[in-house]
C-alpha cells in the first residue's frame, strides 16, 4: 500500500479545499450546468458529496462511541438524499456542502488513537479500521472536484493521491470481468497490471491520464485496442 494515514488526512483536506473553492460563489445557473458525470447536474454531484460527508460522519461517530452507525440507512436512502439535494436552491445546497465538510473535519480531529483503530463498515459492506475514513473522503472530494467540470483536472491533484487511487482502482477492478491492460505512467515509472480477458492492451502516458483512464474519466491516452472503462465512484 503506497499511502499512509497522514497522506490521506492531507489529501482529504486538499481535495475539500479544491472542491469548495471551485464551487464558491456559484448561483443557480452554475449549479444547474451539467457535471462531468452523465445524467447529473452539478447540483446532483454537490448533493452527493455533501451527503457523503454526513455519511462518513456516521462512521466517525461509530468509531468515537462504539455505537453502530451505518453510513446510510439503505441504498435507497442514499439515492433519495442526492435527488432531494439536487432540488435545493443554490444557496441552501452550498451551505450544506460547507457545513457537512466542517462537521466531518471536526469529527475527524476529535478521534484519538484507540478510536482510529476501531472497526467500522463501509457502504459496500467492507469492515475497515476508522483510519480508512480519510482515504474514503479523499477519493470523493478529489475525483469529484474534477467532475464539477469547472477547470480542475486530474493533473491538479497530488501525485501521491493519483498513485494511491490507481492502486485502489486496479485492486478492485481486477476482480471484475473485462479486458486486460498493462498501464505505465511515463512520468513516474509506476506500472499496473489490470487482469482481464484477452491479450493485455498496452497503455502508456502521464500519471494523471492513467489515473483518469482507470477512473473512467476523460483522458489523453492512446494505445492498442484501448478498452473503455466505466466510471469509478
UniProtKB/TrEMBL annotation:
Residues 156-220 form the MDMPI C-terminal domain. InterPro entries: DinB/YfiT-like, Maleyloyr_isom, MDMPI_C-term_domain, MDMPI_metal-binding, SCP2_sterol-bd_dom_sf. The keyword Isomerase applies. Residues 20-149 form the Mycothiol-dependent maleylpyruvate isomerase metal-binding domain. SUPFAM superfamilies: DinB/YfiT-like putative metalloenzymes, SCP-like. One of its GO terms (molecular function) is metal ion binding. Keywords: Isomerase, Pyruvate. It comes from Nonomuraea aridisoli. This is Maleylpyruvate isomerase. Pfam families: MDMPI_C, MDMPI_N.
